[in-house]
Design a protein that fits this description.
Length: about 600
C-alpha cells in the first residue's frame, strides 16, 4: 500500500489563486482559536464558497465529488461503518466495487482519518468529497436507531422473570444509566429527535409491543416482539413524570424534561388503560429555539401583513381555529412573541402550557381543583392585563367572559375547534353567547391546517390528468394559472421514503365587516355565511392549499386531504363522476365555479 502524504491544502489554494496569502494567514490564526479544519474556516470566513472549495479539492486530489442529496444509498454498505466512527471521522460508506470501498468524506485530505478507516473496515478505501452539512444531515437519516431499540428491548426482556419485574431495579438510583430500561428509553428519544417526530406512542398488543412515531403528521411503526417489557417502560415513564405508579385503572397526565442531542425537549405524557395494559402517548416539544416567529408559520405576505395589523389592535377578539394538531398554538405563540414587550401585560390561560415565554404570565388550568378556564379568566381580568390568551373556548361561560373582555379594552386571542373560519363566529352563538356580544367583540377569525412539504431531494414532476385540471380550474376560477407540471412525492433516505419532509401552514383569514356583524346580531347563520363568502379578500383554505401545490411546495394529494377535512371533497367527487373528456381544455372557463370561487372572485 502506498504511503499517504499530508497535503498542504492552504498552499495549493494560494498557488492556484483561489485565496490570497493574507486570507490564508487570517484563516490559520482563526483556526487556532476554533479548532475547525482549515477548509471549514475559510468557508465560514467567506473567503471561498463551499462548492468552489469542494470542486478544487476534487480536482487536486483526483477524487470524485458526490452529491449526497441525490445519492441512492445501499443500507448494507452504509452499516459497514458504525455511526460512532462515521460521526467521528465525518465519513460515510457509499459503495463497494472490486474490493475497494468508496467512502464520502468532508475532508479527504485527512490522511489520519483515512488510515483509521482502513483499519476499521479492514479493506482499502477510496475517498470521495462531500458537503459537510449534507453529510451530517444524511447521517441523521441513515443511522436510524430501530436495531438499537430492538436490542435494548431484548436485553430488558432477558432481565425480567416470567411475567414479573423488579420494582427496585426500575426506580431511579444514583447511577442507573446502564439499566436496560434507561438505555431503551434514551435510544427511543434520540431516534425520535433525530427524525423530527412530534409524538411517540407506546401501545401494548396481545403478542407484541408497538412503538409508533408521528413524523409530519403521519405515524410510522416499529414492532417489538418482547411484549412483556411494556409494564417496565410504563412504570419508568410514570416515575419520570411524577405519576401514581400504583394506579393502572385510570388515565393520568404528566410531563418531564430531558436533554437529547444538545436539545431541550419538554415531554407531555398521557397514559390510558387499554385491553392489554396501558397505552402511553408522549408529545415532544422542542424548547431549544423557543416558539416560532410569525414569519416562520407560512402565511402569505399579504395575509401576514393583515394579521399583524389585527393583533396590534388595542382590543377585540381574534380566533384561530382548526382541529387538534393544525398548528393553532404555534400561530398564537408567534403572535405573543411579537406583542411581548415591557409596556404590555400579557396573561395566558392554557391547558397545558406548551412553551415558556419570558415576561408572560402563564397559567395552567387544573379542573381537579376547580381551576377552570372561566375561573382563571375572571381572576386574570383583575390583574390589569392588556392582552389575554385563552387556550380554548369550550363553554358558554368562557365564551361570554372572553367576549366581554374584548369589549372592555383588552385584546383577546383564543382558539376554537371548528372546520373553517366561516363557521367559527356562529359557533360562539351556538354555545349560548349573545349575538350582539359576538358581533361587537370579534375582529377576525383565522382557520388553518398543516400540509406536508414535498421533500426537495426527491420530488418528481407530475402532470395532472384532465379531471384534476378541471378540479384546479373549478377551485381557483378564472384566476387559475394551471401549470402543465405539478410536483409529486417520490421517496428517498432523507424523508424516510415518504416523499415529504416538514410541514407548512395553509390559512383562511376572515375579517368581520358590517354585513357579517349584522347577521351575527340577528343570529342568522345563513346570512352570515353568505356575507362571509362575499367579503373582500376572502380566500378559502382549499384555495390556499391549491396555490401551495401550484408553487411546487406540496402535492395535489395533500390539497385533496385538506379539502376532505373541511367537507369540500364533494367538489372533487362531482368532477370525478362527471363526463370529463380526456381532451378537456382547462383554460376554456366552461367548468361551473363553486360558491367559494365565486365569492373569492367577487371580493377581490
Amino acid at each position: 500500500m502506498a504511503v499517504r502524504q499530508k497535503i498542504r491544502i492552504g498552499d495549493l489554494l494560494v498557488k492556484n489563486g483561489v485565496i490570497t496569502e493574507e486570507q490564508l494567514q487570517q484563516a490559520l490564526a482563526k483556526q487556532k482559536t476554533t479548532g475547525l479544519r482549515l477548509g471549514r474556516t475559510l468557508i465560514n470566513l467567506g473567503f471561498v464558497q463551499e462548492d468552489r472549495f469542494l470542486e478544487f479539492l476534487s480536482e487536486q486530489l483526483g477524487v470524485p465529488f458526490v452529491d449526497l442529496r441525490r445519492y441512492k444509498f445501499d443500507p448494507t454498505v452504509v452499516q459497514r461503518l458504525s455511526e460512532t466512527h462515521a460521526r467521528r471521522f465525518r465519513a460515510i460508506a457509499l459503495s463497494e466495487k472490486g474490493g475497494l470501498l468508496l467512502v464520502g468524506m468532508a475532508d479527504p485530505t485527512d490522511i489520519y482519518a483515512m488510515d483509521a478507516l482502513e483499519r476499521l473496515l479492514q479493506q482499502p478505501i477510496e475517498a470521495a468529497v462531500v458537503r459537510e452539512s449534507e453529510l451530517l444531515a444524511t447521517l441523521d437519516m441513515v443511522y436510524r436507531r430501530t436495531d438499537e431499540i430492538a436490542g435494548f428491548a431484548e436485553e430488558l426482556d432477558e432481565e425480567l422473570t416470567d411475567g414479573q419485574f423488579d420494582l427496585a431495579a426500575l426506580t431511579p438510583a444514583d447511577d442507573d444509566s446502564d439499566a436496560p430500561v434507561v438505555k431503551l428509553l434514551q435510544s427511543l428519544f434520540q431516534d425520535a429527535v433525530q427524525i423530527r417526530a412530534s409524538d411517540i406512542h407506546i401501545e401494548p398488543d396481545e403478542t407484541v409491543l408497538r412503538i409508533r412515531q408521528r413524523i409530519d403528521g403521519v405515524l410510522q411503526e416499529q414492532i417489538v416482539k418482547e411484549r412483556r417489557i411494556a409494564p417496565a417502560l410504563v412504570l419508568r415513564l410514570k416515575l419520570m413524570s411524577g405519576l401514581d405508579i400504583s394506579e393502572k385503572r385510570l388515565p393520568q397526565d404528566g410531563r418531564f424534561s430531558l436533554k437529547v442531542k444538545e436539545r431541550k425537549i419538554d415531554v407531555r405524557l398521557s397514559t390510558m388503560p387499554v385491553e392489554y395494559g396501558e397505552s402511553v402517548v408522549m408529545r415532544l416539544l422542542d424548547q431549544t429555539d423557543g416558539a416560532a416567529d410569525l414569519d416562520q408559520v407560512g402565511m402569505a405576505p399579504e395575509m401576514l401583513e393583515q394579521f399583524r395589523r389585527l393583533i396590534h389592535m388595542p382590543h377585540g377578539l381574534i380566533l384561530v381555529t382548526g382541529p387538534t394538531g393544525s398548528g393553532k398554538t404555534t400561530t398564537l405563540y408567534g403572535a405573543l412573541q411579537e406583542l411581548n414587550d415591557a409596556g404590555k401585560k400579557i396573561i395566558t390561560v392554557e391547558d397545558p402550557v406548551e412553551y415558556r415565554l419570558h415576561r408572560v404570565n402563564q397559567v395552567q388550568i387544573n379542573p381537579k381543583i376547580g381551576l377552570s378556564f372561566a375561573r382563571v379568566l375572571r381572576a386574570a381580568l383583575r390583574q390589569d392585563p392588556d392582552i389575554l390568551l385563552v387556550g380554548e373556548i369550550r363553554d358558554q361561560e368562557t365564551a361570554e367572559i372572553a367576549l366581554r373582555a374584548a369589549m372592555t379594552g383588552h385584546l383577546v386571542l383564543s382558539t376554537l375547534h371548528t372546520n373553517d373560519a366561516v363557521s367559527s363566529a356562529m359557533r360562539l352563538v351556538d354555545m349560548g353567547a349573545e349575538g350582539f356580544l359576538a358581533a361587537t367583540a370579534i375582529r377576525a377569525v383565522m382557520a388553518q391546517r398543516l400540509v406536508r412539504k414535498l421533500c426537495d431531494n426527491c420530488y418528481i414532476d407530475y402532470t395532472p390528468n384532465s379531471r384534476e385540471q378541471a378540479w384546479i380550474k373549478h377551485t381557483l376560477g378564472d384566476r387559475a394559472q394551471i401549470s402543465v407540471s405539478l410536483k409529486q412525492a417520490s421517496g428517498c433516505h432523507r424523508c424516510n421514503n415518504t416523499g415529504y419532509r416538514g410541514r407548512i401552514g395553509v390559512f383562511e383569514l376572515l375579517v368581520l365587516n358590517d354585513e357579517m356583524a349584522d347577521a351575527l346580531r340577528r343570529s342568522d347563520s345563513s346570512d352570515f355565511v353568505k356575507a362571509a363568502r362575499r367579503s373582500k379578500g376572502y380566500r378559502p383554505l382549499v384555495v390556499s392549499a391549491m396555490l401551495e401545490a401550484l408553487d411546487g411546495i406540496t402535492s395535489l394529494e395533500e390539497v385533496y386531504r385538506v379539502a376532505e377535512q373541511i367537507d369540500e371533497s364533494s367538489d372533487w367527487m362531482q368532477i370525478e363522476q362527471s363526463d370529463v373528456s380526456e381532451d378537456i381544455n382547462p383554460d376554456s372557463g366552461e367548468q361551473a365555479q363553486d360558491k367559494h370561487t365565486i365569492a373569492w372572485d367577487e371580493g377581490s
